[in-house]
Amino acid sequence: MKRTFIQNPSYLSVLRSTLATLVLACIAFIGAQAQGKSTSLNKVVARVDNYYILRSELEEYMIQAQSQAQGQQAPTMCQALERLIVNKMLLAKAEIDSVIVEDKQIESQVAARMDYMAKRFGSEKNIIEAYGKSIEALKYELREPIKQEMIAEKMQSKITEAIKVTPNEVKKFFNSIPKDSLPYIPAEVEIGQIVRYAKVTKAQNDELRARLLDYKARVEKGEDFTSLASAYSEDLGSAQRGGDLGFAKRGDMLPEFEGASLKLKPNELSEPIETEYGLHLIQLLETRGAEYHARHILLRPDYNRMDMSAPKKVLDSLYNLIKTDTLKFEKVAKTWSEDKSTADAGGLLKDQQSGSSRLPLDASMDYGLFMMLDTMKVGTISAPMNYRTDDGKTAMRIIYYKSKVEPHTASLKDDFEKLSNIVLANKKTEAVDKWFKKAIEDVFIKVDPEFQGCKMMGINLQDN
């Protein structure tokens, strides 16, 4: 299957977005149920081995895909069904090949999605009111689609993990594009940041410690740790298991958490331990070689009551040093930025999909950041400003407008990284195509007569 550069994204990229869209569709579907919307719940439009695709799933996927099209052509009903069937095929083959995802990874993702929903709605209370269901019920309904998403992604990675790209392949690909058909690349920018998180006030820290010490005393008097964790822990992922984190290998957890856990004897309780996530009351259950099994109660600080004086003092000082050329931004970011995802790269923000530091200067960028860059010149830094991280933390940051690439016609010299990513995506697409044509022989697929005119990668669904 031939793919064209830029205009048509690779099937693999589409598949990756499909997996995320499926979970968003699930959230939307839960909302539709809560609001009493009519859906064809029992209509099965396709079956892939033991996995079923409902019309409601297809319709919700179409709605989500259309809302995320961002000016590009949304998939047709047949294309949407194709993407859902490939997703189910990945799951079916993963089951055959014994590809699994650990429960703690699934719970971590469930917690992340619930945190996202809490930010979107303002609080857990608002979520409950909006959906008419408890947090536990919503987590239960999200767990299976998230598990399927993660297994499908792991299976997809297994299919494509050995694929590499050489410079000659990139050059050959570029030369194959007619010169009058070279795509127009929109403006792109490189942006750096130095982030300092707001600190928990002493009053709030003391309040959280007192609550944890109270829970500790209650457990020592005979109260059930599991019940307390279920009722009070703000770690949404582990709370429904009574705070149980399962077995962890050394190095899996934050150093402060792991250090405190390994100092305990089985069933012993820690003092309140502070990490970047909040304060923990830890109970060690057992050790097994290089692994340990612990549970905890986590209390998070109220990010609206944080102390901004410390990060402002640090960033004001760093701003003046960088402004006077006493220190270079990249070195300061590596040493002083508390955002681990960007600090090692000298503060540079990177595209999560491609890993490129060149970000499109368009509507996909955070609106506040987009407007800020509009007032800055390349090579300058911003004064320290308040900032709310993606996971809801209160912080301050300095922005560095490192470079800007003006809109231009693609060239091998200026766009080698982008071209390389396209070639890699196309090679992975070919691998998925090849895998599909072989795997379809091992998987039972049946579609509703309404869709038997659809094709999957050139194959009539009714022919399987």
Automatic annotation (TrEMBL):
Classification via PROSITE patterns: PPIC_PPIASE_2
Pfam family membership, one: Rotamase
GO MF term set: peptidyl-prolyl cis-trans isomerase activity
KW Signal (keyword) present: yes
Domain PpiC stretches: 186-286, 289-386
Keywords: Isomerase, Rotamase, Signal
Keyword Transmembrane helix in annotation: no
Protein's name according to its UniProt entry: Peptidylprolyl isomerase
